[in-house]
Amino acid sequence: MKPPLTRDERQDAYVFELKVYDPDKEKTLEDTVEEALRQIEEKNYDAALIEKGIPRERIRHYGFAFAGKQVLIGSGPAMTEEKRE
C-alpha cells in the first residue's frame, strides 16, 4: 500500500473539465474548450485544492472538447485573487 500523498508546493495540481461539443450552443471545438475553462472558474473548482494548501499559481486548468473522434485540449491559468473580485 502506498503512503498518502503529502503536500508539496513545488508540485502542480490539475483541474480538468470535459465537454462534448454541442453545435446548438457552440460554433467550434475552440468555443467548447473556452466554455470548459469558463466553467472551471465560475464553479470555483480550485477551492478544495486551495483549502489543502496548494498555491493558486500551482493550479493548472485544462478544458477538453470532444466531437466524435476529435478532441481539442486547451489550458488556462488558475484564477488569481484579482480575477475573482
Task: Pick out its properties.
single chain; 85 residues; alpha+beta; three-stranded mixed β-sheet; 27% helix; disordered C terminus
What do these coordinates show?
- The protein is of the alpha+beta class.
- 27% of the residues lie in helices and 29% in strands.
- The protein has 3 helices and 3 strands, in the order βααββα.
- It has a 3-stranded mixed beta sheet with strand order 1-2-3, covered by helices on one side.
- Strand 2 and strand 3 form a beta hairpin.
- The protein is elongated, with a radius of gyration of 15 Å.
- The model is unreliable at 80-85 (pLDDT under 50).
Strand segment count = 3
Q: Give a short account of the largest sheet.
A: 3 strands, mixed
| Element-level helix/strand string | EHHEEH
**Total count of helical runs of at least 4 residues:** 3
Report mean pLDDT, rounded to a whole number.
84
- Name the quaternary structure: single chain
Estimated share of beta-strand residues: 25-35%
Which structural class best describes the helix and strand composition? alpha+beta
List low-pLDDT spans: 80-85
Distance N to C terminus:
43 Å
Radius of gyration, CA atoms, in whole angstroms: 15 Å
**Biggest sheet, strands in spatial order?**
1-2-3
